[in-house]
Amino acid sequence: MQTIVKINAGAISGSLRLSTVAIFLAAGLLVAATPERAEAQFYPWGWGNTAPWQQKPRRQRRAAPRYVEPTDEKPATALPKPTGPLVLVVSIGKQTVTVYDDGKVIAKSPISSGTASNPTPTGIFSILEKNRYHYSNLYGGAPMPFMQRVTNSGVAMHAGDLPGYPASHGCIRLPYSFARSLFGITDVGARVIITDEDPTPAEFNSPHLVAPLPPDNVVQNAAAPGASNMIGVSPATAGDGTRTRGMAAARRAAERDRLVSAITEAENAKTAAQNQAIAAAKAVQDGKDLIRKERGEEGRLAEAARKAAKAADQAADKFKDLTAKLAKVDVATLDAATLDKQKAEEETEETKMLDDADAAVAAKRVAETQSAKAKQAVADAGALEKARKVAAEDVRHAEEVLEGAKATLVAADALDARKDYPVSVFISRKTGRLIAKLGFVQVLDVPVTIAAADKPLGTHVLTATHFTDGEKALRWNSVTFKPSETAQYIRRKKRRHDDEAPVVAASHDADAAAALERIQMPKETAEQLAELMKPGSSFIISDYGLSRETSARTEFVVEPWRSRPDSAETRYY
Fold this sequence. Notes:
By secondary structure, this protein is of the alpha+beta class. The chain has helices at about 1-35, 40, 175-185, 235-240, 245-325, 335-415, 510-515, 525-530, and strands at about 85-90, 95-100, 105-110, 125, 130, 145-150, 155-160, 170-175, 190-195, 200-205, 425-430, 435-440, 440-445, 450, 460-470, 475-480, 520, 540.
């Protein structure tokens, strides 16, 4: 029965296969007999479609949006050419930007800042880059005409739509015509202050400000009594005579010559130290070779002394055995010849015993002498190794001196190359240091002393606008950064950075003059700053440290909001 079932199943399977083949053959014959193109029978663009296959056009990439200058915008009044350094104050609360020249308003415009989810950072910034035609690399190539960058992370001032409320991704949108006019009068490095409020630069004067050196054709009065090394002491009154700009230049030239000579001396000292180190290393190697040699000889002589001592012991035992044997012999029974023979044998063994004992003593003495020589070689090698380490340390010290002299010369050359730039000075209560930059290049970083360092100083921006009194003094204005009371940043957990360590903010009545009175700097630093003071120079005094936005391609950036006690979860922008 099983055999029959298997045969029937095989027959059915074969019939199905034959039927399938027959169906495909019939379909092929039908297609061949059809006058239509074969490709129209099998491709998805149609049974009975006689048109040839056409490739679908590729999807075109959407072009980047282009900003079209609005035609209905009221043209802005041309801005006057600045007579001094500009200060731009951006008020987030009022949605305005005010341009100050020498403390006077020369322009004011509405803005549109960042939304609540993409807030515009507040703090002290400067213009880092300018580009007439710029497109965002973060937001789909959005146009940013007349772009003036204020942070490395992408925040900038540029022309854009102003709906009347914060609407940007963090940038500061300006009316098109105003953005164009502002673009024409600003320079890279111009100060930008972004705050919730709308502070106004006020004329400022303090006896504790660093005064510039007078020109060579100006005779300065004798030094005033009571001069100290506080920040406000003019170097001309802090020294023992009148210093002028020409004298300072001559001093810099002499200092550079001294540094070049110091570098030459340091290079010679390094070469001598290296030669001494090489000689010391060779002496150490020679000492190690001598140790191996002396220890080898010590081992050989010690083995010789051991063998000599063994031979002496054997000779003594043999002589002892011989004398014991002869003591048992009855002399009366021996003839004279035998007695003479035994006597001669006893004398020979005794002589040998004594000689071997002397040889053992001599070998031991030689071995001990050689052992002392080997120990001395080890001690000498230790002293040589110490001398080698001292020589190596001398080389490292000479290298440090040389590198320090070269770094000082590089810094001096950098300062001299940029001496015509206005100097920017940042003093931080948080770090207790003073940092100075010339054209984004750091030239000073020194500690300062702050009286009552546990009490806030406030955050103040002091800007020198013009020379006064025959270029013997400067006119200053100040802007005090008021602490923000609003929590306008989205919260998101993140790792705290150094510039986010909480810092106690000053009260709203913080005073720049009182802050200056509490700061003391080294006399040498005050003298260097006096040489660099000119219109456009600035002091930033703050309780905070520098923001992570500060780099080698920026001026000083201070962002107090990062250090607020409630900003531990503040988002990155």
